[in-house]
Write a structure and sequence with these properties.
single chain, alpha/beta, Isopropylmalate Dehydrogenase, 12 strands, 19% strand, binds 3-isopropylmalic acid, binds magnesium ion
C-alpha cells in the first residue's frame, strides 16, 4: 500500500528522533512491501525563524492532504519571550485544530525492566496499562473570549473553559469504543463539583455509558484522579478527560513509565490525517547531541500504522521489537544507558 506522510521534525531533539522513526518506517516498508512517501516541512520555532510564522498555510495544507503527520517536538528558550506575537506552541495548537484531531490517545505502559526508573515502588507499577484519551481541540485552550485588557483601571487576563455537547460526545464515543478492545472500563475525569462545563461532561459521559452497558463507567474528580494515578494506577484502564486536565494528568502519568522518552501519542479526528508525536518536548538541553531516546517517536509511528493505515501486524511488530530491545537492556541516557539515538534505533531494527 502507498501512504503519504508529512514530517514535521520541529525544534530541539525533534529532528533527531523523527529521523530514527523514519528509518523504522522504511524498514517496515521494505519488509511488508509498502510505499511511504515523505514530505518534510517546518513547524514551530524553526518555522518562525524562516517564515515569521509557527505554522504557515502551506504547511497546514501539506498536513491536511497527507494520510498522516509525524511530529517531533516544538519550542525552546529562543522563542520563549512572553510578549512575542507568535510562539512555537501556537503552531502546534493551530495544527491540531486545523486537522480536527479532537482526541489525543496517550497510552502508558510500564516495561518491567524500567520500573527502577519510576519514582513509584515496583509493586504499584505491576500491570499498569492505561490509555488516556484527552480531548484536544476544545476547553481552555481554545475557548473564547481569551486575552488581556484593562478593566476598571486594572490589568486583566481571561481564558474561557467552554465545551459544546457534540465535542464531549465524540471524544466520549471514541473512549468507549477503545475500551471495548481493552478491559472494558472507562474512568471519566472532571471537576463536576465546581465547573459547569464538567457537569455537562459528566451528563454526556453518563449517557454514553448507558448506551454501552458492557463497559464499566466511573466518574472521578480530577484532583482525586491525580492522586489515584500515584496511589493505585493499576486500577485505571481508559481515562477520558478534557483538554487541560488531560495535559496535566498525562505528564503525571508519564513518569510511571520511567522516562517521558518512552511514550507515544496519537491524535485522531473523525476523518483525515492523524497526528503522531512523542509526548516529550524539544529538550533543548540535549538537542544536537544525538543522545535523545527515539523510542517515543518510534512507538508513535507504530500508532500511525495502526490507527491511520490499518496495519495492525506492522504496528505490533514495531512494539514487539521495542519491547525486546528494552528487555535486552539497550538504554539511552534517560534510562541509564549510553546508547546514542541512532544506536538505540539500530538495536530496535536488529530485534525485528
Ligand atoms: C502537550 C504539550 C502541549 C499542550 C504544549 C506544547 C502546547 O504540553 O502536547 O501536552 O499543552 O498540549
Ligand atoms: Mg503537555
Amino acid at each position: 500500500m502507498n501512504f503519504k506522510i508529512t514530517l514535521l521534525p520541529g525544534d530541539g531533539i525533534g529532528p533527531e528522533v523523527v529521523a530514527e522513526a523514519v528509518r523504522i518506517l522504511d524498514y517496515i516498508a521494505s519488509k511488508y512491501n509498502h510505499t511511504f512517501e515523505y514530505k518534510e516541512r517546518l513547524m514551530g520555532g524553526c518555522s518562525i525563524d524562516k517564515y515569521g510564522s509557527s505554522l504557515t498555510d502551506e504547511t497546514l495544507a501539506d498536513c491536511q492532504s497527507a494520510d498522516a503527520v509525524l511530529l517531533g517536538a516544538v519550542g525552546g528558550p529562543k522563542w520563549d519571550n512572553p510578549s512575542a506575537k507568535d510562539r512555537p506552541e501556537r503552531g502546534l495548537l493551530a495544527l491540531r485544530k486545523g486537522l480536527g484531531v479532537f482526541a489525543n490517545l496517550r497510552p502508558v505502559k510500564v516495561h518491567p525492566s524500567l520500573m527502577e526508573w519510576s519514582p513509584l515502588k515496583p509493586e504499584k507499577l505491576q500491570g499498569v496499562d492505561i490509555l488516556v484519551v484527552r480531548e484536544l481541540t476544545g476547553g481552555l485552550y481554545f475557548g473564547w473570549p481569551k486575552g488581556r485588557d484593562n478593566k476598571d483601571g486594572r490589568e486583566r487576563a481571561v481564558d474561557t473553559l467552554e465545551y459544546y455537547d457534540y465535542e464531549i460526545r465524540r471524544v466520549m464515543d471514541l473512549a468507549f469504543k477503545l475500551a471495548k478492545g481493552r478491559k472494558k472500563k472507562v474512568t471519566s475525569v472532571d471537576k463536576a463539583n465546581v465547573l459547569e462545563s464538567s457537569r455537562l461532561w459528566r451528563q454526556i459521559a453518563t449517557k454514553v455509558g448507558a448506551e454501552n452497558a458492557d463497559v464499566e463507567l466511573d466518574h472521578m474528580l480530577v484532583d482525586t484522579a491525580s492522586m489515584r494515578l500515584i496511589t493505585g494506577p493499576v486500577w485505571m484502564d481508559v481515562v477520558v478527560t478534557e483538554n487541560m486536565f488531560g495535559d496535566i494528568l498525562t505528564d503525571e502519568a508519564s513518569v510511571l513509565a520511567g522516562s517521558m522518552g518512552m511514550l507515544p501519542s496519537a491524535s485522531l479526528g473523525a476523518s483525515g490525517a492523524g497526528l503522531y508525536e512523542p509526548i516529550h518536548g524539544s529538550a533543548p538541553d540535549i538537542a544536537g547531541k544525538g543522545i535523545a531516546n527515539p523510542t517515543g517517536t518510534i512507538l508513535s509511528s507504530a500508532m500511525m500504522l495502526r490507527h491511520s493505515f490499518g496495519m495492525e501486524a506492522e504496528a505490533a511488530a514495531i512494539e514487539k521489537a521495542v519491547d525486546t530491545t528494552i528487555t535486552n537492556g539497550a538504554r539511552t541516557a534517560d534510562i541509564g544507558g549510553q546508547l546514542s539515538t541512532r544506536q538505540m534505533a539500530d538495536e530496535i531494527i536488529k530485534n525485528f
